[in-house]
Amino acid sequence: MIQIKVQCSSDQINKIDVKGHAGYDEIGKDLVCAAVSSIMFGLLNALDEMSNENVKMSVDSKISIEALNADSKTQIILNTGLVQLRTVEESYPDFIKIQIQEV
Questions:
Q1: Residue 22 CB contacts under 8 Å (≥ 6 apart), including other chains
Q2: Of 47, 84, 82, whose CA–CA distance to 68 is shortest?
Q3: Could you give the CA distance from residue 103 to residue 62 in angstroms, rounded to a whole number?
Q4: Contact, 70 vs 54, CB < 8 A?
């Protein structure tokens, strides 16, 4: 299962962590993993294009995006990504879980 943890304060997204494998199909044919990967790498690319120094991003055993003093454009991008991830979760609830934490 893909585990997504989103940390928020007020209406701001502070951090998104994504890890795991959906297990919907074998590796290389897993539509759920492909959807989540596309969304997350789209977010990473959009944030990188902005050259935003207030965002830390990493890709290793998990994909992590941390917004530090994020501006409104960054928040729009992060919220758009969260809507997309929720759409995948609604379609495949047995393979992806989004957990929202208020901090």
A1: 1, 2, 30, 32, 33, 36, 92, 95, 96
A2: 47
A3: 21
A4: yes
2-102 CATH pick, 3.30.470.20, 3.40.50.300, 3.40.50.720, 3.30.70.1490:
3.30.70.1490
Q: Domain segments of the chain: what residues?
A: 2-102
- Three-class secondary structure of residue 48 per DSSP: helix
Kindly report, residue by residue over 40-54, the tens digit of the pLDDT.
999 999 999 986 778
Beta carbons within 10 angstroms of residue 46's beta carbon:
17
Kindly list the distances between the CA atom of residue 63 and the CA atoms of 10, 42, 56, 60, 83, in Å, as whole numbers in the listed order: 23, 12, 11, 6, 17
pLDDT tens sequence across 75-103: 999 999 999 999 999 999 999 999 999 98
Give the closest residue to 23 by CA, choosing from 97, 100, 101. 97
- Cα separation, 37 vs 32, in Å, equals 8
